[in-house]
Amino acid sequence: MPRAIALRSDFSATELRRLARRSKDATQARRLLALAAIYDGGTRSEAARLGNVTLQIVRDWVVRFNAEGPEALIDRKAPGPTPLLSDTHRQALAAQIDNGPIPAIHGVVRWRLCDLGQWLWEEFGVSVSPQTLSREVRALGFRKLSARPRHHAQATGAIEAFKKNFPATLAGIAREQGIGLDAVEIWFADEARVGQKNGITRRWARRGTRPAAPQDQRYASTYIFGAVCPQKGKGAALVLPFCNTAAMNLHLAEISELVSPGKHAVLLLDQAGWHLSGDVTVPENINLLPLPPKCPELNVMENIWQFMRDNWLSNRVFRDHDDIVALCCHAWNRLVDQPWRIMSIGIRNWAHEF
């Protein structure tokens, strides 16, 4: 018979019983009391009966107690099966998702789980199910999101340069007008075409089904000339039949009426011909600030239009032109009645927090 392993000498029966009384883990308390019996001169068999276990388990408790003290008698979480993906695999997977696929090499223009699984097999010889890969990808912080359009001819660094120089540009306009920055209102303007050939948006539906939505194929349409001041939560718009310089002049006059008294508006807008034409009449309380070419991401109105289409204008069949105009007016009035909505959608750190 092998000799019994002696308990460490820096504890006593009294200390173990005190620790057992204070322990919030019932299993640890039972094990401490069993070992306390040994400290009192009891046999290992008596400790086994007290703990309701076998002698071998008591021996295991002694080994763990001698090595790590009372904390070793608390059951630890089982390690579970070895993960299929190591940290090296995860880092490579994250980099591959960030970089995106190369169509000529990977044969796809966007990653699907099955494509990523195939890539892992070819690169590392690791076979992972789509369900496991989905959990791994989500744990890495990735989600399946709608891509934001970017113009293919957009100049590299144009957006970053505009944001970086915007405070200085705004300060220059304020100096020219002889006012302080606190007297400047930042507005964004754009136009949206709304017509009978309308869009269809995503909607909640039972899994495995494909919901239907009405879609017209006729071509009657009109334009919303819209502008918002996100910091103040206000907006100005006109619904007009044409998109030209005359319509732009009417819109600028409407914006001018809504600029706060004693304030000066800086109106950010794209470089459409009817925005910057020599025939455009700019009110005295407005300065036009063109955005860089092919950079619609900088214009808050793009997000305003998306919100209005997704919630109020899509999935509809318009009877005629007058019906389109009426619903466009109704949608815009709903928007300006919710100034917090304009603030939530339109506030940008680069434009409002410097």
Spatial separation of the terminal alpha carbons: 80 Å
Rg value:
35 Å
Lateral strand order in the biggest sheet:
3-2-1-4-5
Relative strand content = 5-15%
Give helix % range: 40-55%
Order of helices and strands: HHHHHHHHHEEEHEHEHHHH
**Whole-number mean pLDDT:** 91
Q: Mind describing the biggest β-sheet? A: 5 strands, mixed
Structural class: alpha/beta
Query: Any idea what the shape is?
Result: elongated
User: What low-confidence regions span 5 or more consecutive residues with pLDDT below 50?
Assistant: none
Total count of strands: 5
**How many H/I helical runs?**
15
What's the short version?
It is built from 15 helices and 5 strands.
What does this protein look like?
With 354 residues, the protein is an alpha/beta fold. Helices cover 47% and strands 11% of the residues. The chain is built from 15 helices and 5 strands. It has helices at residues 13-22, 26-39, 44-51, 55-68, 87-99, 103-106, 113-124, 130-139, 158-177, 245-258, 273-276, 300-313, 321-336, 339-346, 349-352; strands at residues 184-195, 221-229, 234-240, 264-269, 286-290. It has a 5-stranded mixed beta sheet with strand order 3-2-1-4-5, sandwiched between helices. Helix 2 packs antiparallel against helix 3 (44-51) and helix 3 (44-51) crosses helix 4. The chain is elongated, with a radius of gyration of 35 Å. The termini are far apart. The model has no long low-confidence stretch (mean pLDDT 91).
